[in-house]
Amino acid sequence: MPSLYLTPASINYLSQFILVVLITSYLGLRRRTLQRGAWAWHGKWLFAFFLSVSLFSLALFVDASLLATTRLPVVYVEATLLSGIVFTLIQFAYSFLASDRPHQIERWIVGTGSAAYSLFEASFAAWRFYLLSHGTVIYRPEGADIPPALGFLWVMIIFVRGAIQNRTNRDHWRFALIFFIPLWLTILNLLNTFRLISSPLLHINISVGILFCLFFFALNYLTTRPEITTLATKLSGVIVTSVVAVFGTLPWLVTPAYAARYTPEIVDQRTLRFVPNQQGGYTISHVAFRFDQRYGTQINLVEGERNQLQSPIDFIMPFYGQTISQVMISDDGMLGMGAVIHYHDLESGFSRSPAIFPLLVNLDPERSPTGGIFVRQEAEQLLITYLRMRSYYYPDQEYTFQVLLSADGSFEISYNGLPSNLHYTLNNSPHATIWAIGAKPAQGTPSALNLARLPL
């Protein structure tokens, strides 16, 4: 079973999950105290809404607690759970305004559309699971978060319209204002998708925003009911929400100082040698530093399937007991040994393709005017050099390293220009900085090794 890591984001989502479970439990207990038939349809839809939010919060917690290479099964169900939240919320809004008879046809159309969207998300998730079982990872389209945003916006419109039609009823206005929060969070999620804001900023806003949105939503609903909600209950809700909000926010204030102290076990101006051993793997050792300045010819990577930048080079060598005849060079510091590696597939156990990772990091050739990727090929050796390649996420960082492949199956990785200011940000994308170094066969789960303690 994969290990769970309590990161700032996961603690945030855990606090959110705790609050939602408390609210859902309170609504369930409240229902039991009512007489049979006294629980209106809007109350049932509200309970279904909070139940959906509970499952969604749990999924977010597990997602943020897992490593990037093991979290995909949870990620794949999140959109379906979110679509369920939108569907139940829309049904609650229309049920709460049951007296608004002229909009029954509209309710049917919107309800059918939101149900169809939920069915689509469930089908899309099933398809992604099928592809994942075959080692293929696909991302959601960049505009896939627009439908939930439209759903939250429509709920706001429903309550604003109800408030305009019944100006003396402030409850509708309060509901409309409350839903500015999830709309804002959905917009932030879109901005993060296009890398316009950082992941930590998104996590903080989502956690704290949803906490208070859910509390005020439940509190406003309870104040509209004829059953009396005592002042003690309201104060208890405020206190609990404030406590879990502080509980979820503190990690973001405390842990950055510890993250800043982290020093990766990556040494510049060092050469690592990998030699095949009798166990079918490789023995890793330090050797005298060498960096060949005869880079060879600069290559231009070609955009292939699934937007993967790559360039195939013919070269025969044994690799993990198999003979490969081609090396696929990518722009992200990885070499596909006999097969193309798609960057998305790395999130599923570092893919099912044999590979060498001299320095797995998201690099940007277009922002590297003074550098590039060079190849020099001889009869028994293939030299691949990444020269002054800039980071995609941090353009001020440049990476220089090279890989020397030999026909006998051994290879060397040399580093001669690594950034001194590597950015490791809490709960950031794994692609943002150095993710992995080493090699892997086609099958099997890669093991983590300490390259500071060689030979291995």
CATH architecture term of the largest domain = Up-down Bundle
Strand content: 15-25%
- Give the class-level CATH name of the largest domain: Mainly Alpha
Secondary-structure element string: HHHHHHHHHEEEEEEEEEEEEEE
Please tally the helical runs, counting DSSP H or I stretches of 4 or more residues: 9
The major beta sheet can be summarized as: 8 strands, antiparallel
Find the CATH topology of the largest domain: Rhopdopsin 7-helix transmembrane proteins
The tally of beta strands, per DSSP, is 14
Helix content class: 40-55%
Shape: elongated
Overall tally of domains = 2
Structural overview:
With 456 residues, the chain is α+β, with helices and mostly antiparallel strands. The protein folds into two domains: 8-260, Up-down Bundle (Rhopdopsin 7-helix transmembrane proteins), CATH 1.20.1070; 270-440, no CATH class. The chain has helices at residues 8-33, 41-65, 72-96, 104-133, 146-165, 170-178, 180-193, 199-224, 231-260, and strands at residues 270-276, 282-287, 297-299, 302-303, 309-319, 322-330, 335-337, 355-360, 363-364, 372-377, 381-391, 398-406, 411-415, 436-440. The strands form two sheets. Strands 1, 2, 3, 9, 10, 11, 12 and 13 form an eight-stranded antiparallel β-sheet that branches. Strands 4-5-6-7-8-14 form a six-stranded antiparallel β-sheet, with no helix packed on it. Strand 12 (398-406) and strand 13 (411-415) form a beta hairpin.
Blueprint of the fold:
Elements: H1 8-33, H2 41-65, H3 72-96, H4 104-133, H5 146-165, H6 170-178, H7 180-193, H8 199-224, H9 231-260, E1 270-276, E2 282-287, E3 297-299, E4 302-303, E5 309-319, E6 322-330, E7 335-337, E8 355-360, E9 363-364, E10 372-377, E11 381-391, E12 398-406, E13 411-415, E14 436-440
Antiparallel strand pairs: 1-2, 1-13, 3-10, 4-5, 5-6, 6-7, 7-8, 8-14, 9-11, 10-11, 11-12, 12-13
